[in-house]
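Per your request, structure below.
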């Protein structure tokens, strides 16, 4: 990986010149999804398609050479890829001007909490309304944050703060249904180490807590 985000200091919010198009980049390992999002973006007079990537390596290269205001990031990439938590953390450091909208097939408050703690600016479901997705894209690109499970996410912050970064990684994978063996292979650790970080009761507690917490939508300026 090479390059940095400093070559494209595109600011969001009030710092963006009036009338300036909002450049959109997409990371998704499915070609059909990338194509569909490109067609969707082209329907908006405010948005401009800047390109897409199928892997994190392609994404870093693209962001180092193309303008981008908002990145639509698939939450679950292939097993050999960076996990969503690590990828968002890296992107926030290398490309701080880029707003990140996580796009997922599994709208789960615990996963949403992890992404917000990592630095994402929004979290939406792939099954949602396309018109609403377009509005959310525009809003996040200009400085809003958008979370679908606002109450659960806000209330879960204190619980998550007790976990170490490695425990957070394992928790995220457990909530996706990955086995201890798969998680150990993904993070190049022993199964024993990963099992000790699993905290089965904690994972179960998270699931129970989020299942019992009503979902609301939060969109606000930052």
């Amino acid at each position: 990986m090479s390059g940095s985000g400093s070559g494209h200091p595109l600011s969001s919010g009030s710092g963006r010149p009036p009338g300036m198009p909002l450049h959109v980049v997409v990371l998704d390992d499915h070609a059909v999804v990338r194509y569909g999002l490109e067609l969707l973006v082209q329907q908006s007079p405010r948005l401009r398609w800047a390109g897409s990537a199928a892997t994190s390596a392609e994404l870093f290269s693209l962001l180092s050479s193309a303008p981008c205001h908002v990145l639509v990031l698939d939450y679950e990439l292939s097993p050999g890829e960076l996990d969503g938590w690590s990828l968002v953390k890296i992107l926030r450091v290398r490309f701080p001007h880029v707003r990140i909208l996580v796009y997922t097939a599994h709208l789960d408050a615990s996963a949403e909490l992890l992404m917000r703690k990592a630095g994402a600016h929004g979290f939406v479901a792939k099954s949602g309304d396309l018109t609403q997705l377009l509005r959310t894209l525009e809003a996040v690109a200009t400085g809003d944050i958008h979370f679908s499970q606002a109450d659960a996410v806000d209330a879960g912050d204190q619980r998550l703060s007790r976990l170490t970064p490695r425990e957070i990684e394992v928790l995220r994978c457990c909530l996706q249904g990955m086995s201890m063996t798969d998680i150990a292979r993904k993070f190049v650790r022993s199964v024993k180490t990963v099992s000790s970080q699993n905290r089965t009761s904690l994972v179960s507690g998270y699931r129970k807590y989020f299942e019992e917490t009503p979902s609301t939508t939060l969109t606000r300026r930052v």
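Strands lie at 22-27, 47-53, 70-74, 99-104, 122-125, 144-147, 218-221.

Regards,
D.
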